[in-house]
Design brief:
four-stranded mixed sheet; mainly alpha; 10 strands; two-stranded antiparallel ribbon; elongated; ARM-type_fold; 27 helices; guanyl-nucleotide exchange factor activity; Leucine-rich Repeat Variant
Length: about 550
């Protein structure tokens, strides 16, 4: 009934009546996302009628009402096929100021029309494959970049920027070819980075350093939304950029990494918005070549090295509250480097672990980022080692028991999700400079067995990457407890009584044969398969392992 009345007025009424009836329809269906199939044909005709009104010379308020209803109707994929034509797309492009003319954005009265047109285009492009093809034909990506350049430094039109960026994100998500066009032809990387700079109001103090005001106000909701959309669009543009080929590319990625460092050190209007902002920043940092991530840390200025700077040496790893205060008021320092951004990433990772769900989507990006940073940058690795794996003192509890970051990561090493447990184990392994003996000290052999088996390191040794040769120093408490530490569980155990001490020789022989028979039965029924280590450290059936060692011994004898 609503569609029928609105359609009648749209076809026959004047602008004022059309505006009133469409405003009523919009108010009633603002939260509608599922539509009755019985009225499908009427909704199609209403869309067609609205496009006919939009080509007429009607007041701005009437255009806004038409576009609001069109945005609501475009949530229904079924009605978009007949209305998604090149002509109709061009109408929306003209209203969104995405046509070829060089009109500046001076008429504030037109801003609501531009925003609603962009919202309609977002819905239509997302829900219609025909619209996606027309977007390529109409070179929509280039038009969106042109509109961004017109408004990139203007704070008063954040809504226009936000939905322009959202549409750019959708296009680059749905069409991988557009990513290359954005990156190279349209210079999307510097453009989108400048949008972020504008949203964060960055003031540069050096080539890759920005001024941070920890006591400044949070970002506004509009600035935060705009920044999040820019981060998502940048992620698509840089998704294949793990390797830098040109010096100019390296500079641009460093600038972007510096902007993302600034992003990590500011907050949004709410805690949830701050987490969303930082989450998108983490995702984008994962696309930055690891050689460019050194700008996440920077040498301290003379002012920052003054006495009021809170050094990490004075703040033990378990003093989280004190460190949060230090981060808010001063600077976190390690080896003369500013570690604020890395500390924020570490806290972000711990919060994601504490959530206890969606580890693959929410946790693995930041864990992977910290792993690669630690592998490539010595100061970052040493800082994270001090925070995550401080010198062991109390080894009475198992490594996975407790509330420290180390305990939480060790628990993840036996997670049911293979990807999660692999990246958690890899992170700890890198912090231990890929030395098996160091990893086992912090995790126990049982928790580390999966990683060591996959790496062929069950027999010990170290990984393939090179690290500095500085040695770990054990505490006196650990040295005293070490002889009694269970290597499998990784914690101190009281000596257990030997169960065979009170047995006679006959009883011992009986129990031994009983065990042999049980193992033989399990093996014959293939419920248990004896395994051994190959010379390269990987696991293989015991017969194959023994045969390989036999070949090695024969070869050695022949050589002798």
């Amino acid at each position: 009934m609503d569609e029928e009345r609105a359609l009648y007025i749209v076809r026959a009424g004047e602008a004022g009546a059309i505006e009133r009836v469409l405003r009523d329809y919009s108010d009633k269906h603002r939260a509608t996302f599922k539509f009755e199939s019985t009225d499908e044909d009427k909704r199609k005709k209403l869309c067609e009628g609205i496009f006919k009104v939009l080509v007429k010379d009607v007041p701005t308020t009437c255009q806004v009402s038409c576009l609001e209803v069109l945005r609501i109707l475009s949530r229904d994929k079924k009605i978009l096929v007949p209305v998604t034509t090149k002509e109709n797309m061009q109408i929306l492009l003209r209203l969104a100021k995405l046509h070829e003319s060089d009109d500046s954005l001076e008429k504030v009265s037109e801003f609501p029309v531009i925003v609603e047109s962009l919202k309609c285009l977002c819905n239509i492009v997302f829900n219609s494959q025909m619209a996606q093809q027309l977007s390529l034909e109409l070179n929509l990506a280039a038009k969106l970049c042109n509109l961004l350049r017109k408004c990139k430094d203007r704070k008063c039109i954040n809504d226009i920027k936000c939905f322009d960026l959202r549409l750019l994100f959708l296009l680059s998500l749905l069409h991988t070819d557009i990513r290359s066009q954005l990156r190279y032809e349209l210079q999307g990387l510097p453009l989108l980075t400048q949008i972020l700079e504008s949203a964060f109001s960055i003031k540069w103090t050096d080539e890759y350093e920005s001024a941070i005001d920890h006591n400044g106000p949070p970002l506004s909701p509009q600035e935060t939304d705009c920044a999040i959309e820019a981060l998502k669009a940048l992620f698509n543009v840089t998704v294949d950029s793990w390797k830098v080929h040109k010096e100019g590319d390296s500079h641009q990625f460093r600038v972007m990494a510096a902007v993302l460092r600034h992003c990590l050190l500011i907050v949004g209007p709410t805690e949830d918005k701050t987490e969303e902002l930082h989450s998108n920043a983490v995702n984008l940092l994962s696309n930055v070549p690891v050689s460019c991530l050194d700008v996440l840390i920077c040498p301290l200025t003379h002012e920052e090295t003054a006495q009021e700077a809170a050094t990490l040496d004075e703040l033990p790893s378990d003093k989280t509250a004190e460190k949060d205060t230090a981060l808010k008021n001063n600077t976190l320092v390690y080896n003369g480097m500013n570690m604020e951004a890395i500390y924020v990433l570490l806290n972000f990772m711990e919060k994601r672990i504490d959530k206890g769900s969606s580890y693959r989507e929410g946790l693995t990006p930041v864990l992977s980022l910290l792993t690669e940073c630690s592998r490539a940058h010595r100061n970052i690795r040493k800082f994270l080692k001090d925070q995550v794996l401080p010198p062991l003192r109390d080894v009475t509890n198992r490594p996975e028991v407790g509330s420290t970051v180390r305990n939480k990561l060790v628990r993840l090493m036996t997670h049911v999700d293979l990807g999660v447990k692999q990246i958690a184990a890899e992170f700890l392994f890198v912090l231990c400079k890929e030395r098996v003996d160091s990893l086992l000290k912090y995790t126990g052999y049982g928790n580390a067995a999966g990683l060591l088996a996959a790496r062929g390191l069950l027999a010990g040794g170290r990984g393939d990457n090179w690290y500095s040769e500085d040695e770990d120093t054990d505490t006196e408490e650990y040295k005293n407890a070490k002889p009694n530490i269970n290597l499998i569980t990784g914690h101190l155990e009281e000596p257990m009584p030997n169960p065979i001490d009170d047995m006679t020789e006959e009883q011992k022989e009986y129990e031994a044969m009983k065990l042999v028979n049980m193992l033989d039965k399990l093996s014959r029924e293939e419920l248990l398969k004896p395994m051994g280590l190959k010379p390269d450290g990987t696991i293989t059936p015991l017969e194959e392992a023994l045969s390989q060692y036999s070949v090695i011994e024969e070869t050695s004898s022949d050589t002798d």
